[in-house]
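Exercise 7.
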Amino acid sequence: MTIDEFVKSFAGEFDETPAELFNPQTEYKTLDEWNSLTALSIISMVDEELGKTITGADLRSHKTIQDLFNYISAL
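Solution. The predicted structure, written as tokens, is:
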């Protein structure tokens, strides 16, 4: 999966935030819609689409979508 595909999948987990607000440098925890349910959706998406397991702590320890993608890619 490329970073662009990851950003698209990441954005797809948000119901109300416009997709055009998402890019590799988006600080996802600053989005109004970010909450524990969204975090669980991201964890599930990573598991289903990438076959990798991440935790809430992993989400909290990264700032941008690119940071998270780099971490997941290294797993």
